[in-house]
Amino acid sequence: MDTSQFIGVGLAAVFASTFGSMLGLGGGVFLVPLLTLFFGIDPKVAVGASAVCVVTNSVVGSSVHIRSGFTNLKLSMLLQVTTATGAIVGALVALRVDASVINVVLGVVLIYSALSMLRQRRLEPQAPAKEAPDPLHLRASFVDPATNRVIEYLPVRIEPGLAISGGAGVLSGMLGIGGGAIQVPLMNLLMRAPVKAAAGTSSFMVGMTAVATAAVFYAHDQIDPRVVVPAMIGIFLGAKLGSQLTRRIQTQRLVLVFVMVIAYLGVSLILKVFDVALM
User: Fold this and answer.
1) What pLDDT is stored for residue 16 in this prediction?
2) Around Cβ 143, how many Cβ atoms within 10 Å?
């Protein structure tokens, strides 16, 4: 890798980390397609590098989300049980399939995530009734700095949430994306957590999930330091920037950015399999 590629990978990681922290996706959902589409890096090597970087992005970015009150630690620990298990399974699958399969699956996941967020009718669920049952003590609240409003919420549909979270873990391990592309829509649309709470909780989760993925890829010699080093530098620089921007940007704009960027990358990955470029 020459100097220009080193710098390019680093800048791509800054972009991925900034938006990944803002949206609770861990950066991998942007970094993998950027590395494969614009730098011609093998998808399996990109997935391995992304898994390592997602851990860094989560550690740096989630600390700001926790201080802001966006992260629901109890919910993250609950969902992490099935997510981490699925991540190990997904990583083992990724090492045995063709690279084009990874591109297509990631493209479909990105488009699904974009459409899911676009279809939703309520960006912020209504505050739960005080008497609503909360046997797992998952009720939480935070002050949204963009509106100075106190947002209270109570996650619902825990059982299906756990099942889908396991599926997100499989995709995380297979694609190196940390699972945030599924977790954020899952928590917002199905479990009725506000977007910023979903992003903060997901940002905390994706690091732990990515550790399992990175360990499997490292054991199979799919971690390339020439890609990981510049990506790590960029991830570190972008993580705090993204989590700070989350505090100041209104939810509607946050969702719009998510939909536009992620849909473009998803379509580009699918078209790449058929040697079609999306301008």
Assistant:
1) 84
2) 12
DSSP helix/strand/coil, 221: coil
Burial 59-83 (b: 16+ CB within 10 A, else e): ebbbbbbbebbbbbeebbebbbebb
CB atoms within 10 A of CB 264: 15
Residue range 52-87, pLDDT digits in tens: 887 776 777 677 778 888 999 999 999 988 998 898
Q: CB-hemisphere CA count at 13 Å for 262?
A: 30
Instruction: Look up tokens 């910023």; give the residue.
Output: 196
Structural contact between residues 45 and 231, judged by C-beta atoms closer than 8 angstroms? no
Q: What element of type H or E holds 196?
A: helix 195-219
What's the token pair of residue 241?
């920037």
pLDDT in tens, 176-232: 776 677 788 888 888 989 888 988 898 888 777 778 888 888 888 889 999 999 998
**Using one digit for the tens of pLDDT, what is the confidence trace for 94-146?**
888 887 888 888 888 888 777 876 765 445 555 565 667 888 899 999 988 87
Rounded to 5 degrees, what angle do the CA atoms 135, 140, 146 make? 160
Q: For residue 129, which amino acid is it? A: A
* Structure tokens that stand for 138 in this block: 């998952």
- Measured distance CA(252)–CA(29) in Å, rounded: 20
Q: Encoding tokens for residue 54?
A: 């997602």
Cβ neighbors of 262 (< 8 A, separation 6 or more) are 29, 30, 110, 111, 113, 114, 181
DSSP letters for 116-181: HHHH-S-SSPPPPPTTS--TT---EEEEETTTTEEEEE----HHHHHHHHHHHHHHHHHHSSTTHH
Distances from the Cα of 81 to the Cα of 91, 110, 149, angstroms: 16, 23, 32
